[in-house]
Give the backbone structure.
Amino acid sequence: MTDTAHDPGVADALRRAAQAGDDAVPVFTTPHGARIRVGTASWTDPTMVAPGVFYPDGVTSAEARLRYYASQFPLVEVDSTYYAIPAARMAALWAERTPPGFVFNVKAHALMTGQPTETSRLSADLRDALPRPVRDKKRLYPRDLPPELLDEAWSRFLAALEPLRAEGKLGAILMQYPRWVRPSRASAALIEDARRRLGDRLAAVEFRHRDWLADATRERAFALLERNGFGYVCVDEPQGLESSVPAVARATSPRLAMVRFHGRRAEYWEGPVAAVSERFRYLYDAEQLAEWIPRALALAERAEEVHLVFNNCYANYGTTNARELSRLLRGPGA
């Protein structure tokens, strides 16, 4: 059965976005001096770039879309970097096409968080350097790579982001660990190794298994992040599944706290879907958004920066909810 209240279609989302106001969303500064940024986890999803959805007529090129998006929001998340290591030239173009103060959060490449990558997405020289027994595999896990090649993948990823970093536009590197990374000594070592490799770069960790926030392990998980200077990524997502992490607002770094809104489409969360965007085809209602205002303000009392990122990037659902949440942040007490 279709949940029409939370999947009303593009036209209804457009109407709600207009009600929220068409002014550019600002960076909010709290009385404590913390900055709150609101944005989405995509500006190029095929459902988002379709005519009449979010971009004005004539805004069709990659450059024009980014420039327009950056005129509306102060933050965006780059997820394409999970699938392929970006080129430094691409990061330089992102920096050139956005105004001063705009921030990119960048999702870590799959190999950086223990996940598999498609062999064909690696650069030719990295593929050629693979051991012959694994060279023809369609997908590679970090364990399939010799240590020096895994080191090289990390090095290239971080080097590619330097143009953003040089311009002050690199926000956080998002370390989203998969469902099979559960609380254990091996998982703690994986996170500690990531901290060593990242140096002083701002980064945040998102868990995808509910055991991390179980009563018996929650405080140890937060302590692990605190020791390593990682921000914790609070999530709003479907509940009741193995990969469901409860919506606990916690700041584990004085530099950054983050919330990612995945929608609450439980029936599509773990099963197969025709398109990934189907998992996130969910438009939050006003009451659900209002729940996060006191939580976001509480996070802002403990971190210099708070990022509120809508990953429900089906069509204009994410951008509409980002505008609506921003309007609530402008309200009394915010």
User: Anything to note?
Assistant: The chain has one domain: 10-329. The chain has 14 helices and eleven strands. The chain has a mean pLDDT of 95. The first strand starts at residue 28 and ends at 29.
